[in-house]
């Protein structure tokens, strides 16, 4: 009978994973644009420079679409050259593992760019995320059914959908944090720790550090918890094993990527990031901002009603039991396995607090890696309150109904995901349909060109005009003898008076530019067919 239950639970987990894959692919079909950091992901995994704007021939030249595709893709003559992955990360501020994996996946689209190389990598990682959410939840709740519910809640949350759509290292960081947490809980519970568990702990530390430096914030939180536990129980065996494993892992890690020392301690994302957020007002603002982001992307702004409902449901039952003189002897209250859940909350909170201080922007992407932990701990805290008055089966139904209400109002039902960029109104399709050349008026003092590079891969050719060279005479020279029968697309980035461009092109074409779309850091205009006099 037990074997049948186990097989059934595995089948349900497999169904959840299959459904999430179908969902993520469906959402992926809607992804129509890219954040500049996503473009960085592709460039950093293959190009010979960090940014295409570093090329000597970038400014004041016409470039065909292949010039920009080259930055985003692995070329035929680069298939076996993985050195750029390592060198670019050395020169940038991030470790190399995610970029290495993205490059491997990009080998399926040689000489071409596709969103599916990054999305397929994320979706594969998403399978691992669900498996470890299930494993961790099973440890906390001592219930496979509750673990399956938590896995489903996370898999279909808006935060998880965003994580899958954002082609950056955060999905991989999410997985490594969960992998590490699962191993940490074994250590904390003093289970039969074998050498292979310590090896897996070391591997998780190494790959976490090679994914994103924020991983170490979470690790530090768990380390403090383990120290507290060891001092309280006066049992130091597992702490010693942890420390030795961490030291060996650190040595291996630094042998692989010694440049992390410079990045963390001397780079602008290290001490500079910390000092920029040490104003108490900024810290409080950051915390409140991230609470709102969590509320939106996990609870669809229903966190307060959710908390109130859980409390009301618990105390209604308490009141009924008191009136009837019922005393519950719940053996589950004696379940020591459940007490460890309190201690994964500490590293999660520590991560959120520090990230709210050091992140340059207060955005969802920075807290995506702990969103599954937030889901797990929210369900866990609700479970702690409800289990005093309800059976596990009843709690399963209560949490299932509450989260069904939340899930039914999120994601694809009422909201457009940020990282599918549907707010850009199919601008990429419109540019491709126009098949017109692009004039990109570029202020080098506000270099967010990678926010717009994808558009340049869709136009037959693009001229990058340094705004310092802008004049009506220069524009006439650039556009002279150009085939403008399909019109001209004009892109102006930030930090200069765009009216000058509008006026000069009106003098040349005899018509006003039509504003098409406001983007992340630029405005896009269109001129109908004209001839330069």
In short:
The chain is α/β, with parallel strands linked by helices and 533 residues long. The protein has helices at 2-30, 36-44, 65-72, 83-91, 97-106, 115-141, 144-155, 158-165, 170-188, 195-209, 215-233, 237-256, 260-266, 271-276, 280-299, 303-324, 342-358, 371-386, 392-407, 427-434, 453-456, 472-479, 498-509; strands at 61-64, 438-442, 461-466, 488-493, 514-518, 522-527.
Characterization of this structure:
The protein has 533 residues and is α/β, with parallel strands linked by helices. It folds into two domains: 2-30 and 120-419, no CATH class; 420-527, Cobalt-precorrin-4 Transmethylase, domain 1 (3-Layer(aba) Sandwich), CATH 3.40.1010. The chain is 60% helix and 6% strand. The chain has 23 helices and six strands. It has helices at 2-30, 36-44, 65-72, 83-91, 97-106, 115-141, 144-155, 158-165, 170-188, 195-209, 215-233, 237-256, 260-266, 271-276, 280-299, 303-324, 342-358, 371-386, 392-407, 427-434, 453-456, 472-479, 498-509, and strands at residues 61-64, 438-442, 461-466, 488-493, 514-518, 522-527. The chain is elongated. It starts with a helix and ends in a 6-residue tail after the last strand. The model has no long low-confidence stretch (mean pLDDT 89).
Describe the secondary structure blueprint for this structure.
Blueprint: H1 2-30, H2 36-44, E1 61-64, H3 65-72, H4 83-91, H5 97-106, H6 115-141, H7 144-155, H8 158-165, H9 170-188, H10 195-209, H11 215-233, H12 237-256, H13 260-266, H14 271-276, H15 280-299, H16 303-324, H17 342-358, H18 371-386, H19 392-407, H20 427-434, E2 438-442, H21 453-456, E3 461-466, H22 472-479, E4 488-493, H23 498-509, E5 514-518, E6 522-527
Helix pairs in contact: 1-6, 1-7, 5-6, 6-7, 6-8, 6-9, 6-18, 7-18, 7-19, 9-10, 9-11, 10-12, 11-17, 15-17, 17-18
């Amino acid at each position: 009978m037990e074997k049948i239950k186990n097989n059934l639970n595995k089948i349900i987990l497999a169904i959840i994973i299959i459904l999430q894959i179908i969902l993520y692919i469906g959402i992926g079909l809607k992804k129509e644009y890219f954040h500049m950091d996503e473009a960085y992901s592709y460039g950093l995994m293959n190009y010979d420079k960090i940014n295409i704007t570093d090329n000597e021939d970038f400014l004041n030249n016409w470039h065909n679409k292949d010039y920009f595709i080259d930055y985003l893709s692995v070329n035929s003559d680069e298939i076996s050259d993985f050195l750029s992955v390592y060198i670019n990360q050395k020169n940038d501020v991030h470790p190399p593992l995610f970029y290495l994996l993205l490059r491997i996946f990009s080998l399926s689209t040689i000489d071409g760019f596709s969103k599916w190389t990054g999305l397929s990598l994320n979706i594969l990682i998403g399978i691992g995320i669900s498996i470890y959410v299930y494993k961790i939840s099973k440890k906390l709740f001592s219930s496979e059914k509750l673990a399956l519910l938590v896995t489903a809640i996370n898999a279909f949350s808006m935060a998880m959908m965003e994580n899958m759509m954002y082609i950056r290292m955060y999905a991989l960081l999410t997985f490594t944090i969960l992998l590490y947490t699962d191993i940490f809980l074994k250590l904390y519970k003093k289970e039969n720790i074998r050498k292979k568990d310590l090896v897996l702990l070391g591997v998780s530390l190494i790959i976490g550090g090679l994914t994103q430096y924020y991983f170490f914030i979470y690790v530090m939180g768990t380390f403090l918890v383990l120290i507290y536990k060891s001092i309280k129980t006066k049992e130091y065996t597992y702490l010693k094993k942890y420390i030795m494993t961490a030291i060996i892992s650190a040595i291996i890690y630094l042998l692989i990527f010694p440049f992390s020392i410079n990045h963390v301690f001397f780079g602008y994302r290290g001490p500079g990031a910390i000092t920029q957020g040490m104003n108490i007002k900024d810290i409080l603002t950051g915390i409140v901002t991230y609470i709102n982001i969590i509320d939106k992307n996990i609870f669809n702004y229903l966190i307060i009603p959710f908390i109130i409902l859980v409390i009301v449901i618990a105390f209604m039952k308490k009141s009924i039991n008191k009136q009837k003189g019922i005393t519950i002897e719940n053996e589950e209250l004696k379940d020591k396995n459940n007490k460890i859940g309190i201690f994964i909350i500490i590293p999660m909170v520590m991560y959120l607090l520090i990230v709210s201080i050091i992140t340059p922007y207060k955005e969802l992407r920075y807290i995506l890696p702990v969103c599954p932990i937030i889901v797990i701990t929210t369900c866990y805290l609700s479970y702690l309150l409800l289990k005093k008055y309800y059976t596990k089966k009843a709690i399963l139904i209560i949490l299932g109904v509450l989260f069904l209400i939340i899930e039914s109002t999120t994601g694809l039902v009422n909201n457009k995901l940020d990282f599918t960029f549907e707010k850009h109104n199919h601008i990429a399709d419109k540019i491709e349909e126009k098949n017109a050349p692009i004039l990109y008026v570029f202020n080098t003092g506000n270099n967010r060109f990678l926010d717009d590079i994808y558009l340049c891969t869709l136009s037959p050719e693009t001229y990058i005009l340094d705004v310092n060279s802008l004049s009506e005479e220069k524009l006439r020279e650039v556009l002279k003898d150009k085939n403008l029968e399909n019109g001209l697309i004009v892109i102006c980035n930030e930090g200069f008076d765009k009216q000058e461009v509008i006026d000069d092109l009106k003098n040349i074409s005899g018509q006003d530019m039509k504003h098409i779309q406001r983007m992340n850091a630029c405005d896009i205009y269109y001129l109908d067919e004209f001839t330069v006099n």
